[in-house]
Specification:
The chain is an alpha+beta fold. It has four domains: about 25-45 and about 445-600, no CATH class; about 105-325, Rossmann fold; about 335-430, no CATH class; about 640-754, no CATH class. It contains 23 helices and 28 strands. The strands form six sheets. An eight-stranded parallel sheet has the order 7-6-8-5-9-10-4-11, with helices on both faces. Strands 17-18-21-20-22-19 form a six-stranded antiparallel β-barrel. The protein has a three-stranded antiparallel sheet with strand order 12-1-13. Strand 9 (about 250-255), helix 11 (about 260-280) and strand 10 (about 285-290) form a beta-alpha-beta unit. The protein starts with 6 loop residues before the first helix and ends with a strand.
Amino acid sequence: MTTSFDPLATSNLIVEGYRRYLKSLLPVRDPGIAAALDHEIAQSRLTKGPLLEAAPPYKHGATLADLVAEGVLNSSFPGLASRAVPLDRPLYRHQEQAIRKITAGRNVIVATGTGSGKTESFLLPILDALSAEHAAGTLGPGVRALLLYPMNALANDQIKRLREALAVAPHITFGRYVGATPRTAREAAEKFAVLNPGQPRLPNELLSRAEMRETPPHILLTNYAMLEYLLLRPADLDLFEGAHGGHWSFIAVDEAHVYDGAKAAELAMLLRRLRDRVAGGRSLRCIATSATVGDDPLAVTEFAQRLFDADFEWVPGDTSRQDLVGATRRAMPEGPFWGPLAPASYLFIAGSADPEAEVLRLAEAAGVAGYADAATALAHEHRIADLRALLAERPRPFTDLATELFDPGIDRNEALAALVTAGARVRDSSGSAVLSARYHLFTRASEGAYTCLSKAGPHVSLARRETCGTCSAAMFEFGACKRCGAVYLSGSVRHTSDGLVFGPRQLPTERRTWLLAGDAPVVVDEDDETLEEPGRTLDTDDGVLCAGCGSLSTAGTTGCTHGGCGGALLWPVRRLHTKADTVSGCLCCGARGAAMVRQFETGGDAAASVITTALYQALPPAEGEEADQPGEGRKLLLFSDSRQAAAFFAPYLETSYETIQHRRLILDALSSATADDETAHVDDVAFHLVRAADRAHVFERRRSRQERQRETSLWLMAELVATDDRQSLEGRGLLRADLGREPGGCLLGLPLWA
C-alpha cells in the first residue's frame, strides 16, 4: 500500500503505463513493422518530464489584527476571521492589497499563482461585510455574495473551506446550488451523511434547493451554467428578488481566464442580466481571480471591464487607481552560504519527524550556528541556494538539475528528490516553505504512426513525416485490423506527370485511400458481400507501391514508373474501393464492423483514462474517517476546456476504472478458488469474488450480502462474455473458460482455469 507520494516513481508509473497502452493500440502482424513500432514507442517523445518548477515565496504584509486596528476591517470580524486565517499571521502582500481595495468599494482582479491565497483575498472582505451587517442587526435572509466557479469540483472544494470558516458564525448562511443539489431537505441530509460520515451538519449550511428557495443564503456558490437556469426558472426567483431580494453586494468569478471567446461573451451577457435583476440602478463589487489571465495590466483590466460591464482602472504611478493585484515575490537570500550538505543529510531532513531540529543540528555541526531559525539556516545552505538560482527563470528537467547539482557515483535523482522534500518540509514562522516546488509531467497524443517500407527498414515514426529520417524513403501512415493485425496504409493518391503517387493524407478535401500492404490471400464472405450496403463493399485492385517514392502502379510492374528513387523495393498492395473514410472490414480475416481497421490514434478519453488511472493508484490513502470511503479516500481533480467533454469523460473514466478493478478482483477470486485444484466452477469463483470485493472495500457497509453477491456475479458474467477480446482476462491469457460435459454429452457447468 502507498503511504506517501513519490513524484519520481509516479512519473515512471505514468510513463510506463502510457507506453503499455500505446503498444496495445495496434496488433500489427508484420514482424518488422511491429518491432519498429515497439522501438519507437519506447524511444518516443510523447512524454516530457518530470520538470521541476520553483515558486519563490510571496512577500508578506500586514496581519488581520493590523487591518482591524487600522479600521480597514470592522471590530466584529476577528472572531470569525480566526477560523480562516490566524489573526497574527502575516497576510501575503497581494492579499492585503486586495482586501484594502475591496473594502474600499473597488472592483478588483487578483492575478496570482496557484496556491497564493486568491480565495482569501475576496472571501475575507465578504465575511467582513456580513459581520458588519450582523453587528448592525440588519443581516436577514437573502443573497449578499455570489461565488461563481467554472466547474462543480472547484465549488465543492470551496464549500469545505466555508464549513471550516463559518463553523463559529451560525448567523452567516451559505449554500451550493448546482445540478447535483438535492431538491428536499430530507434528501440533502441523507446525502450529506453518506458523503461526510461522522461530520455534524452546520445549521447555517443550506443543503437543498427547497431550503435555499425558502431562505436564500448569504453566500451562494454555483457555476455559470447553473446560474442561467436559476435566472430562468420561476421556482428560483426568490434567490434574486421578492421578500429577500435587494441585498446583493458581491460577485466573485473564480478562474476568470477560462472564459474567452464565445464563452466569455456568454458569461458577460449572463452577468448583465444578473445585475439588472438584483441591483437595478446600483453597482455591485466585482472580483475576478486567475493564475494565468495575463501580464498586461491594461489588457487585463479591459477584459474585466467587458466581462462584468463594470469599472476597472489601471493608472500607472497611482496605486490607489490600480485594480489589478499581482504577486510580489521575496528575493532569494544573499550569501554567505554554507555547505553543501552530503546527499544523505537531505534524506535525514526529509524523513525526520522534526526537520527543523535536524537542520539546526547539521548547521551547528558545519560550524555555522547562529541563524535565527531553521528556515533561515536552510535557505543559506549552498545546494538549496544553487537549486533556487537554477529555477529562478524557468522550470528545468529534473534529471538535468540532478546532474548539475550532484556528483556521479550516487543516485542523483533520489538525492535531488530528497533535497526538494527537505526544502518543502522546513517552514518559517509565517508558514512559508524554504523551497516551494512543483513537479510537472506532460504527455501528448500521437499524430498517427508512419512507416517506411524500404529494404533498410522498416522505420516507424509517431510524428507526421513524408520522408524517413533514417533511410530517406517515403513514409506512409498505417493502421491495422483489430482482429488479425493486417497492415493497411492510409493516405491520398495524387496525379502527377509520371503517374499516380500515394502519400500521407494532407488536405481535408482529399478523399482517403486505403491500401492493404502485402499479398496475403483475401477472405471474402459471400453472405457479407450480399448484405453489405451499396458503396461499402470491399472490392480491390491489385497493384505495386514503390517504397522509395510512393508511386502506385498496376500489378505486374517490375520497376518504379516515377524515377529517381534508385530502384527501391516494390510492395504488392491492394487498393480498396470504398467511399467511406474508414474501412468496414478486413480483407485478410473477413472480420466486419465499423472501423475494423484502426489507425494509431490515442484519442482524448482513452489516453487520459490510462494516465489518470496510473496517477490515482499512486496516490496515498486518506487518513482518519475518510479512509473508509471508496478508494480509501483518494481524491483526484481533472480539468477540461469543454463542458461536453468533461460530462462524457467522467462516466467513461468510471466505467473503464471499474472494469480494471473488477478484473483484478476476479483474478484474486480465481486464485483463491483454484488454490486446491487447477479448475473451479463459476459458482466457486463468484463466492470468492464477494470476499475479494469486501476486502477491497468496494461496497458500502449498508449493502446486504445478497446485493453484493448479485452484483459481483454480474461482473463475472460480463467478463466471460467480454467483447474486447484483446483486453479481457481470457484474451490476455490469464484465464480459460470451457463447458464441462459428461461422457454422454450432459452439460455439467462452466469450469475456469487460472
